[in-house]
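Final report, Chapter 2: Outcomes

The project's central promise was a pipeline that accepts a single protein chain and returns its three-dimensional structure in a standardized token representation, suitable for archiving and comparison. That pipeline is now operational. To close this chapter, we reproduce one record exactly as it appears in the project archive, with the input sequence first and the structure output second.
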Amino acid sequence: MKHLVVLTGAGISAESGIKTFRDADGLWEGHDVMEVASPQGFVKNPELVLNFYNERRKQLLTVKPNSAHKTLATLESKYQVSIITQNVDDLHERGGSSNIIHLHGELLKARSSFNEHDIWSSKSDIALGDVCENGYQIRPHIVWFGEAVPMMEEAIQICESADILVIIGTSMQVYPAASLMDFVPSQTPIYYIDPKPAKVNSNRIVVIPESATQGVKQLLKLLS
């Protein structure tokens, strides 16, 4: 069974109603990125940061996976499928996929601000003053700018064994995630689905300039 690796970004969740985290003006829902997605921002104004993610968590609970998420899950009948996502939502899980790595954390998890390995599932709001069992403020389980990406090494190993790589809904501008394409074997075909794809300089990359839902439909035809 061939190993199909899928790298997904905000574009696949946008069609479910999830706002793309970063708007064209560089602001994230009206906030400078460093205010709401950095350790420094959390230290400066923890209540703002907590409320920002509380609102995103509430929105996530109101949306559903779309046909792109669900179709990727069906590919598990023909391929060994590994999904590496930059998204912090759980739409791949709800769409039926079983092997998912979240590079940038998970919105429906919380963790201790002291111990990064003290993580638990949570769908509830996090308030200033909520503490873990050791007395430290609870924070979202999100990888902020300036923090290490703990799942990166595992993601690299997965890409190194890819027979097929599919990239969906990402500008390939956010590092280190954007570098994963460089770790797939040289003979591995790459399919890139995005309505506004970044420029690519490789003959082995098949660009499908479509939304995630439409692009995945085309992908199925190309893989059959």
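Archive annotation: The mean pLDDT is 92.
This record, like all others produced under the grant, will remain available to the consortium after the project formally closes.
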